[in-house]
Amino acid sequence: MRAPSLGEFGHQLAHYRHNQYESEWNFLKKIAVIITRGGWNNLLQACEWIALAANSGMEVSGYFRDEAASRMSQSKIKEMTMSSDYRGREAAVRDLLRQENKADLSKLLQKAKESGNVKLSACKDSLRYFDLRPEDLIPELDEVQTAEAFWNEAVISADQVFTF
What we know:
Elements: H1 6-26, E1 30-35, H2 40-55, E2 59-64, H3 66-71, H4 90-99, H5 105-115, E3 118-123, H6 124-129, E4 143-145, H7 147-155, E5 160-163
Parallel strand pairs: 1-2, 1-5, 2-3, 3-4
Helix pairs in contact: 2-5
């Protein structure tokens, strides 16, 4: 049996690693994303991760609850409220987000839904806490449901659960 050359060995190793990583990520077919914090950066990160997963062919279920649910209202979705860590940089960051087409969370969610299998819902209890009705929410949300319903529908069958 002939020993492979260093170049052949490197190619075989790279092929093995590629297949190994691909098989490790291929098990992620369905994810659940639970978003609770309502700060702009948190919501942006959640929207970006939902879009990345959808673009990768994953089935994505997103659940907005607590402060995040209140920010999914038509009256608050465009508020770019930053955490205190951005103090003194808010205007510059808002300008950067606009330049990068990341200033409109509704559009980001709409694009994610158009690019893949994405279902978004808001927590029924959280709407009560913030005196919101389903018709107050952005149209990108598919439904209002209880935490138990989301658990049964999305979390139990998810390959991975992400929280924001």
